[in-house]
Amino acid sequence: MQEVQVKLENQKNLKEAKIVTLAQQQATAEDEKIILISNQENEKIQLEANANKPVIAKTSVDLTNMTSASETPEPPAPSLTVGSSGYIYPLQAPISSPFGAREGLDANGFHKGVDFSAPEGTPIAASMAGEVVVAQNDGMPVSGYGIATIIKHSNGMYSLYGHQSELLVSVGDSVQQGQIIGKVGNTGISFGAHLHFEIRTSLYGGMGNVLDPMNFLN
Fold first, then answer.
1. What EC class is this (predicted)?
2. Phi/psi at 49 (nearest 5 deg)?
3. Residues forming beta bridges with residue 175, ordered by sequence position
């Protein structure tokens, strides 16, 4: 009789244990369901957030070639190629008016030098080494040429640089070939920014005392 009672008690305990285990499994399944739903909700929120983000294209930018709108590119430096007579071009720019006869210039219509068209502020180089003998704004011996420089060279010749915007040398200065002596301008009798360049045989370059600069530059 006692053995039967013990057997019944064991069966009862086993049944209760199964019930408890089943309840625990159901609770675990419910928890996993809640976690799954929560994860799905989080993924949905993340996808919606990503969909609303602006698309930013990856772009490679070369900073070395960037120039701000306020910056002006530097004009080209004068060429140091020496001509057959030992002179160099005072700047790299196209010729807008050659040496020689030209209508509407001077009483006899003769152009005493070569005009190089260039933006205002372009640097001007000494065509040959020498001593600055004139650095002034108009007046003899540079009348009509506005701000101008004359350099006397060791060969006894003179080079004139007219219509400048700024002088960078003074009378008495010794300058080297290629040294920057001024900047292109539009001063004096001028109708646009350019450099008037002359080769003179004397300080006062009247008729008969000026030579074609291209014969010395080439």
1. hydrolase
2. -65, -40
3. 130
Q: Report yes or no: 150 and 142 within 8 Å, Cβ to Cβ.
A: yes
Burial class (CB in 10 A: 0-12, 13-18, 19+), 180: middle
Tell me the C-alpha distance between 168 and 200, whole Å: 21
pTM to 2 decimals? 0.64
Residue 160 · residue 149 · CB < 8 Å: yes
Answer yes or no: is pLDDT of 212 > 90: yes
Q: Which parts of the chain fold into alpha helices (H)? A: 2-51, 214-217
Q: Give the closest residue to 165 by CA, choosing from 122, 111, 129.
A: 122
Q: How confident is the model at residue 22 (pLDDT cuts 50, 70, 90)?
A: low
Token pair for 83 = 């001509």
Q: Which domains does the chain have, with CATH numbers?
A: 95-215 (2.70.70.10)
Secondary-structure breakdown of the chain: helix, strand, coil percentages, each rounded to the nearest 5:
25, 25, 50
Tell me how far apart the alpha carbons of residues 168 and 181 are, in angstroms, rounded to a whole number: 5
128, 88 contact by CB (below 8 A): yes
Q: Which has the closest alpha carbon to 184: 91, 136, 122, 93?
A: 122
**Torsion 188-191-196-200 (CA) sign:** negative
Both tokens assigned to 57: 């294209």
